[in-house]
Amino acid sequence: MGKVKGKSGPLARRPDNSAFKQQRLPAWSPMLTANTVLPFFYLMALICMLLGVWLLLTVQSTQEIKLDYTEAGTCDVCFEKRKNVSNAAQTCTCTVVFSIKKALKGDVFFYYGLQNFHQNLRRYMDSRDDGQMVVHTASHLRKTQMVSPLPPCGAVANSIFNDSFTLTYHGSSGPSIPVPLLRKGITWYTDKNVKYRNPKNDNMTLAQVFEGTARPLYWQKPVYELDPLDPTNNGFINDDLIVWMREAAFPNFKKLYGVLYRDSQPFTKGLPAGNYTINISYNFPVQYFRGRKEVVLTTLTWFGGQNHFLPVAYLVTSCLILLVAILLTVAWWKFGKNGKRMEE
Length: 344
What we know:
Layout: H1 34-60, E1 64-68, H2 75-81, E2 93-100, E3 104-105, E4 108-115, H3 122-126, H4 138-143, H5 155-158, E5 164-170, E6 177-178, E7 181-182, H6 189-195, H7 206-209, H8 239-245, E8 253-260, E9 270-271, E10 274-281, E11 292-299, H9 309-336
Antiparallel strand pairs: 1-11, 2-10, 3-9, 4-8, 4-11, 5-6, 5-10, 7-8
């Protein structure tokens, strides 16, 4: 029955006489009693604890080796050399020796890491030109700046991490064996194929495409010569450049450098135990921001790398829920079990 039209007064604004507007629809209201609430709290505490233990065991199953090479081995000489800006163009190589006591089984990922480098600074993150790195023609590339185009421009690209590594395995018997690393395919698919593209060459070489441009100030090579061993890995689609251009959220971070190529002995099952050396082309200075440099060798699981945050978060949540459940149980046992009122 609807409201009567043409009438004035309070009845004119009365809602329709329907089950929905008059709130006569069937409804269910849970009765929160100790017999329903307390088992729910204990169940949630148990679920969080099981998830936390499961994730913790998963994380601990990963193997990880961190090696700070800032001043390790013979790198102390290069560290002092990089303090002077006038030596920036001079090459410096060093060697760090380490050992793996327990073999890293399965796929092994090689990362480089930086500490106290704030890629998340807003002015730093804004200092880039993503549109420049998806240009379609070389003429458009040259018109993006008035004088001396710098492909790629901005502080992010200019500060690219340019140390390089060569890993060597020294077995108990036999000669030293270089550890093969896959240096391509380490980027996101969308970054490599959508976000970053080289200009169309029209049967020209990449050097000819970038003719008339200058390399960024602190780069030792132009953008078209980043990978002398693989011509298809140069320009804006260079894997190392793409990995660096994805800024880290925290000042201490690591970025993927390569993946173990498990095609030949003795690396078919991973990295065997033994002695290793890393030959480093030491180029990236860290003194100006009081940073440190490291390499990380690690295996991965379905959960990712060795990150304890989520397992610990589940375990802490489980303990808090269990504590609340115990307090509620004590309060119910003391005040509510026999139907007594709390104020009594």
